[in-house]
Amino acid sequence: MNPLPQHRPQITGRREFLSRSGMGMGALALAGILTDDGCADERGQGAELTHFRGPAEHVIHVFLNGGMSQVDTFDPKPELTARGGQMLPFENLKTERKTGVALPSPFTFAQHGESGIPVSDVFPHLSRCVDDMAVIRSMHAQLPNHEMSLMLMNSGDQRLVRPSFGSWLTWGMGSENQNLPGFVALCPDGLPVGGAGNWRSAFLPGVYQGTLVHTAGKDPTKLIKDIRNQRLSPSQQRQQFELLQRLNARHLEQRPGETAIEARIESFEMAFRMQTEATEAFDVSQEPEHMLKLYGDGPQNRQLLIARRLVERGVRFVKTWHGSGQPWDSHSNIKTEHRNVAQQCDQGLAALITDLKQRGLFHKTLILCTGEFGRTPSVEM
Predict the structure, then answer these.
(1) Whole-model pTM?
(2) 65 burial type by CB count under 10 A (0-12 exposed, 13-18 middle, 19+ buried)
(3) Cβ(277)–Cβ(180) under 8 Å?
(4) Domain housing 153
């Protein structure tokens, strides 16, 4: 949230002005709330409008990026175990790499709960929640490329830039808290494969784009870049916004009917209000000790607790990414690598279900846990 430059060349257009003004919230306001080329709608925080209403009021999408293996977690294949080390009886088995003999799961499956849903031993905590889960085994993938599969999973198109899942949902259902974004993406550090394309709003107004928050640290004032202005007081920042409004009015006088710039300024107003509300929402230290123990330590578990805090405050869609890059991409040693990444989120996932049920939020919060694809049944050569 840097102050306006004291000396400015002539402003030639609204996009140039916003790109040079440095009016705060850094990546949050400009790259999170707004799109590079899109604009917010005529009300700025357009997510306030509810187009459609469904039984669920919130979504928490836990994305285990990198390719969580279905046959090593929730979809046991007895035939694969029986044929371990043998050539599979498939003709023209097409994969990205040359394949060899059948590779059975190195993990042990057991049935859990009254439903008897089988879960592998990489998820000891989550397996106790199976009666509150629905496991869908009918999904299949045709793209071996992570980036294209992520685009397909998140936007419905592997090549063209389309609105992301969260953007569509926020557009359709609106937002309940005008001091927080309707769509928040949480990632411990860095970016997943495909970057911001995974939460873009594309041709929808920019207000529906996801706001990225890095959750690796514990200091809530540092999770969102430039959430606090170190140079200006709130009253001085308010003067900046008033200056923008005057410039905006002049712009509209010269271009009657063009209201996109006004919508952008209203988005900055929301960013200004977030300085207090966002800091409080991301501060998990306010949670009682028993709740912190329930979720466990580590950024993956902690961001699931943050997801609950955001939903509790009316955020419509929260997407959690396991980490930057492809953390679940276990080509070389699935036995060790899959167990490691599962342990990073297992306790938090179970805690999220338990916590939402205790707070009466479970019945109106849809929790999705997905990846971009699984693995083939054979050894890679």
Answers:
(1) 0.81
(2) buried
(3) yes
(4) 55-227+270-380
